[in-house]
Amino acid sequence: GAVVSQHPSWVICKSGTSVKIECRSLDFQATTMFWYRQFPKKSLMLMATSNEGSKATYEQGVEKDKFLINHASLTLSTLTVTSAHPEDSSFYICSATNRDRGTYEQYFGPGTRLTVT
Amino acid sequence: AQSVTQLGSHVSVSEGALVLLRCNYSSSVPPYLFWYVQYPNQGLQLLLKYTTGATLVKGINGFEAEFKKSETSFHLTKPSAHMSDAAEYFCAVSGSTNAGKSTFGDGTTLTVKP
């Protein structure tokens, strides 16, 4: 299979604090990992693309200093929401492409629901 | 540039009826097209994809979609709806071989009535 996990599945934090979300490919090595944000009843918005060992590429309008992405290995990428505010509350989803299967398909994690109070 | 339009944010069908979810795309290059399903508070699961070759694509759970270049469409169908099909469905288009560079439609909520 091609399983992607995310941790935590949900988190509540206070305004001004930072939150780290992990995305792991459990049974494959991920060429690339992607981070999406999904607002209620809305579609997915690509935030950034990360490749192992290199800096993430952020989409236009996404603050790279606020949403820090670290892709430390072929199986782990992390998204840190720094100095979180209530408007950062959202459902964050990661996905990964399998290095051995090409990039035609991406495998999604189960998502992390962030609530900032 | 690429974009996706899903016609109908909500579709309701009776159990056993035909499911038709519409998707139109625009792409400046030959598109790769995807349909995903999302259940509440979960990530997305790939239903099917079109890359090249046969234009009628069969996916999981009895779904299929047909790529029609002349109509720039990739509608999703299932002959007989099950209650378990109730979910959010997203159509996506990519102008490259990298699925992660996809643009997603706004989604269609499918309700299945008993």
Describe this structure in words.
Chain A is globular, with a radius of gyration of 13 Å. Chain A has strands at residues 4-7, 10-13, 19-25, 30-38, 44-51, 57-58, 67-73, 76-81, 90-98, 106-108, 112-116. With 117 residues, chain A is mainly β. In chain A, the strands form 2 sheets. In chain A, strands 2, 4, 5, 6, 9, 10 and 11 form a 7-stranded mixed β-sheet that branches. In chain A, strands 1-3-8-7 form a 4-stranded antiparallel β-sheet, with no helix packed on it. Chain B is 0% helix and 56% strand. Chain B is built from no helices and 11 strands. Chain B is globular, with a radius of gyration of 13 Å. The termini of chain B are far apart. The mean pLDDT of chain B is 92. Chain A binds chain B through residues 4, 6, 32, 34, 41-44, 46, 49, 91, 93, 95, 97, 102-111, 113, and chain B through 32, 36, 41-46, 49, 51, 90, 97-102, 104-107.
Could you give a short description of this structure?
The complex is a heterodimer of chains A (117) and B (114). With 117 residues, chain A is mainly β. Chain A is built from no helices and 11 strands.
List keywords for this structure.
heterodimer, A: 117 residues, mainly beta, 7-stranded mixed sheet, 4-stranded antiparallel sheet, globular, B: 114 residues, 6-stranded mixed sheet, 5-stranded antiparallel sheet, 0% helix
- The biggest beta sheet of chain A, please? 7 strands, mixed
What composes the largest sheet of chain B? Answer: 6 strands, mixed
| Helix content percent band of chain A | under 10%
Helix fraction of chain B by DSSP (H/I, runs of at least 4): under 10%
By oligomeric state, this entry counts as heterodimer
Report the average pLDDT across residues of chain A: 91
Q: Round the mean pLDDT of chain B to the nearest integer and report it.
A: 92
Tell me the layout of helices and strands:
The complex is a heterodimer of chains A (117) and B (114).
Chain A: E1 4-7, E2 10-13, E3 19-25, E4 30-38, E5 44-51, E6 57-58, E7 67-73, E8 76-81, E9 90-98, E10 106-108, E11 112-116
Parallel strand pairs in A: 2-11
Antiparallel strand pairs in A: 1-3, 3-8, 4-5, 4-9, 5-6, 7-8, 9-10, 9-11
Chain B: E1 2-7, E2 10-14, E3 19-27, E4 32-38, E5 44-50, E6 56-58, E7 64-68, E8 73-78, E9 87-94, E10 103-104, E11 108-113
Parallel strand pairs in B: 2-11
Antiparallel strand pairs in B: 1-3, 3-8, 4-5, 4-9, 6-7, 7-8, 9-10, 9-11
